[in-house]
Amino acid sequence: MSPDLMNTIGVVLQVILALAGAFFFAFWISLVIWTFRDIRARTRDVFAQILATLLVLLFTPFLGAGLVLYLLLRPKETLAEAYERALEEEALLRDIEEQPACPNCQRPVQADWRACPYCRETLKTPCPYCGKLMALDWVICPYCAREPSRRSHELRESLPLETAPLGKSE
Ligand SMILES: [Zn+2]
Ligand SMILES: [Zn+2]
User: Fold this and answer.
1) What are phi and psi of 44, to 5 degrees?
2) How far is the CA of 170 from the centre of ligand 1 (A)?
3) Other CB atoms closer than 10 Å to residue 62's CB: what's the count?
4) What are residue 135's DSSP bridge partners?
5) What is the mean pLDDT of the chain?
6) pLDDT of residue 60
7) Nearest one of 17, 20, 60, 57 to 36, comparing CA atoms
C-alpha cells in the first residue's frame, strides 16, 4: 500500500469517527432534553426534575444506563393522566353516592318509591299540601315551601287567606 492510500484511509476513518461522535452527541443531548420535558410532565418537584435530567446527562454515555434507570424510576403517570384519573374516580364516587339506597337495608331503591320493597321501610311521604313525594328528613316541602309538620295549624290559617280575594278584607 502506498503512503497516499494509507493517508486517505486515515482521513476517511477520521471523518467517519467525527460524524459518529457528532451523531452520538446530538442523540445524547436530545435524550437529555426529552428527559427534562418528560419529567416535567410527571412531577412538579424541581429537585426530582434536576435529578432525573442529571441522571440521563451523566450516565447515558455508559451504555445508556442513565436513560434505562430513568425509565425504571420515573413516575408512572404524567400529571395530566393523574388529573384525568382523579376526575374519573370522583365521577364514579359521585355516581355511587347519588344512587339512592334504603336507609334500613341499604339496597338500591328508586327515587320515586314510597317504601322499600325489600324491608318495608318507609322512604318518602307525599306532601299533605301539594302531594309531591318528600324525603322523610326534609323539613319543608321543596315544591310548595310549606311545612308538613305544622299541617293542621297552618291549614286552618293559610287556606282562608289564600282563597280570599285581595282587598276584600277592607
Ligand atoms: Zn330496605
Ligand atoms: Zn308540598
Assistant:
1) -95, -5
2) 54
3) 9
4) 124
5) 86
6) 86
7) 57
Q: Ligand nearest 102 Cα, by number?
A: 1
Cα(53) to ligand 2 centroid in Å equals: 66
What pLDDT was estimated at residue 105?
Answer: 94
Q: Which ligand is nearest to the CA of 123?
A: 1
**Ligand 1: distance of its center to the CA of 90 in Å?**
27
pLDDT of residue 3: 85
Query: In Å, how far are 93, 95, 99, 117, 122 from 106, measured between CA atoms?
Result: 16, 16, 11, 12, 13
Residue with cell 315551601: 145
Q: What is the pTM of this model?
A: 0.54
Provide the 10 A C-beta neighbour count for residue 127.
20
Write down the pLDDT at residue 1: 67
* Ligand number with the minimum distance to the CA of 117: 1
At 98, list the grid cell: 347519588
Q: Any idea what the Cα angle at residue 107 is, between residues 145 and 101, rounded to 5°?
A: 25
Q: Residue ranges per domain, the chain? A: 3-79, 107-149
CA distance 124 to 134: 5
How remote is the CA of residue 152 from the centroid of ligand 2, in Å? 14
pLDDT over threshold 50, residue 72: yes
**Residues 46, 40: Cα–Cα separation, whole Å:** 8
